[in-house]
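Example 3.2
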Amino acid sequence: MTKTDVLVIGGGPAGLAAAIAANDAGADVLLIEREARLGGILKQCIHDGFGMVRFGEKLSGPEYAERFMDDFAARGIAARLLTFVTELKETPDGFTATVVSRDGVDTIKTKSIVLATGCRERTAKQVSIHGTRPAGVFTAGTAQHFINLLGQMPAKRCVILGSGDIGLIMARRLTLEGAEVLGVYEVKPTPSGLTRNIHQCLHDYDIPLHLSHTVTRVFGHDRLTGVEVAEVDGRMQPIPGTEQRLDCDALILSVGLIPENELAERLHVPLDPKTKGPLCNEDLMTDVPGVFSCGNALHVNDLVDYVSESGETAGRGAAAYAKASAGKGPGAAGTTLSAGDGVLYIVPQRIHDTAKAGKTTVYFRSRDAVEKSKFLIKDSTGTVVFEKIYPFLRPPEMERLELDFSGLGLSAGTALTAVIEEVSG
């Protein structure tokens, strides 16, 4: 039996930041990680562009992770690698986690939990591509792992489905390594990745981007020999007669990320159907008191700087919860914040105490690409309590703002709705 104040599950950028923040807040912390090394997905992200918000300089993924790993090691925070959670249970005075490692089975007793489990990629079967299952169909992250960590080329001539950031980055990476990228095919009428990646990864290397197109079939038995692509209509359905076969030896999928929340579900944590992550309050505590969520397990971020920021918020919250109540405390909050017209999602969805919340970091995405527009927060009567004008909003680009809820004059239990309205002229 091991006892701790805060158990952090996941050793990527969110988990490292959470563990450091909880330790600095005076809590006894234990971090567990299922891989052999800390750092999460950043270990294989050798391109630069990380850390511009936090450090003001362009770092590679490993460089960014190393800064947190150094801080983590300097504090002497306990960590267990190659450790897997097999069971989570809520108890009268906290939680117990059953874990398995090379040392055998152990039970960890903790006052609070931070879920920093990250996200996973959608596969070919999840986007309903017809055909057999030949070798040569990879997620973008798997292709990245092959090239950057294993030193193996997964393709000589490939097609990329989906214009998510990892797919765009891999289009460039594969080209630099000598592969021919026939094109990036995106089912939506607009790109899914950051604008800077569209320019730096596709335009700079003359890689074509085909919007409103998708892959409808794969060919090959033992190894992929080609794919069928087709145009899609406004409902994203293939248009008959537009099919075209492309000969290739690999299909790289960049078709979205899904927060990993199987552990949250074991604790009966309610999830937001829009983010696929837990509903949470300003401290990133879920509706189950003592359980916190952060990083890509909470919602898929586009910048690792914000992943670390949410980890720190969750870590501080978990430490405060563990010290103040030893298993007792508020869960779901009185004031709710929901996504309305034009808003894809908003986090957090709860404000426990608006009078004490002070400045709270809020993240949101627009549902559609819009030019000059107003982001509004309205109360249940339709009264606007907050307004900010944006020159443009794009779904791939997450927006961040700080709101002082204590200065909005809200009464307890207020239901708030965020909406986006276009500004004419």
